[in-house]
Write a structure and sequence with these properties.
Belongs to the peptidase S8 family. Keywords: Signal. The protein is of the alpha+beta class. Helices cover about 20% and strands about 10% of the residues.
Length: about 100
């Protein structure tokens, strides 16, 4: 960030306005890295990425959901025949399925 700016967000805003008067910051990142998210056309993104102070740009990737109904997807219906019955005195195993989805 050039010394003439008091805060990163002012610098980001000016950088975005250099490629489009309508561009606006959707979110700013300040914890681990300094950065921003925005919506740009391909031409605007190319223009912004050509600026020497821009280190890298990561396009948003959209992913389709495989299911919104996990029990049915796993073959578990709502009937008592398919749902396991647990004895309150027995051991219970809980498993977590980490899909690796980042928001």
């Amino acid at each position: 960030m050039p010394a003439s700016f008091e805060h990163h967000t002012h610098w980001y805003d000016l950088s975005l306005k250099s490629v489009s008067d309508l561009a606006e910051m959707l979110y700013t990142y300040t914890s681990a890295i300094h950065g921003l998210s925005t919506k740009l056309t391909l031409e605007q993104a190319a223009s912004l990425s050509s600026q020497p102070e821009v280190l890298f740009m990561i396009p948003e990737l959209k992913h389709e959901l495989h299911t919104t109904r996990t029990p049915e997807f796993l073959g578990l219906g709502q009937t008592t025949e398919t749902m396991p019955q647990f004895d309150s005195t027995g051991d219970v195993i809980i498993r977590v399925l980490d899909t690796g989805v980042w928001l």
